[in-house]
């Protein structure tokens, strides 16, 4: 896009849209695949997301809203990594996962697979505690992310410094029917 001289404002919007799709598709996979729900996958996802963030920083795109679209995925990855045992853990999880729906949090906790035999599965009682704490949240009971969301596009007006009356239209474009007024 840079090579084609695309307006920087449009580039930002395209990047944000793409990051949303990456985050939504990845989170949906995580929510549907047990093999994605472990401490080590959480770590891999955090690492991979940090690479994406670094790319944004590299391209000076940190402020285009793209990073924010990854927030649900980041929180799900963190959820895989934090302790899930005591009431304090439950409280921490509830305040950390504010970009995830209750259905998503519960699903991740249910799918969570311990890395080794020394770690326990998340207890039913713990999941109940979470559900009780989040009962008063006003939210849609959404499990999967809508991967078809399209952000509105705005085309900035950037006046060209070229004077239109001086433009020569190349004959090869076959635009002979155009007349200058
Ligand atoms: C992280 O990214 C690598 C490629 O860089 C990929 O092979 C791997 O599957 C990703 N991990 C997860 C959990 O998505």
Automatic annotation (TrEMBL):
Every Dilute domain range: 1-136
Xref: PROSITE patterns:
DILUTE
Question: Mind telling me which Pfam families this protein's record contains?
Answer: DIL (PF01843)
Please name the SMART domains in this protein's record: DIL
Q: Which PANTHER family match?
A: DILUTE DOMAIN-CONTAINING PROTEIN, DILUTE DOMAIN-CONTAINING PROTEIN YPR089W
Q: What is this protein called?
A: Dilute domain-containing protein
Taxonomic source organism? Umbra pygmaea
């Amino acid at each position: 896009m840079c090579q084609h001289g695309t307006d920087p404002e449009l580039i930002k919007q395209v990047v944000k849209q793409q990051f949303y799709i990456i985050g939504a598709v990845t989170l949906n996979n995580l929510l549907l695949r047990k093999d994605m729900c472990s401490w080590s996958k959480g770590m891999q996802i955090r690492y991979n997301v940090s690479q994406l963030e670094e790319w944004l920083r590299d391209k000076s795109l940190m402020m285009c809203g793209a990073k924010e679209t990854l927030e649900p995925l980041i929180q799900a990855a963190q959820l895989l990594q934090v302790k899930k045992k005591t009431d304090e853990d439950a409280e921490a999880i509830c305040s950390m996962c504010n970009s995830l729906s209750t259905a998503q949090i519960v699903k991740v906790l249910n799918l969570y697979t311990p890395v080794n035999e020394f770690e326990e599965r998340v207890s039913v009682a713990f999941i109940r505690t979470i559900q009780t704490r989040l009962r008063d949240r006003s939210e849609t009971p959404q499990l999967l992310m809508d991967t078809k969301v399209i952000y509105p596009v705005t085309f900035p007006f950037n006046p060209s410094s070229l004077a239109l009356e001086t433009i020569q239209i190349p004959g090869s474009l076959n635009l002979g029917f155009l007349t200058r007024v």
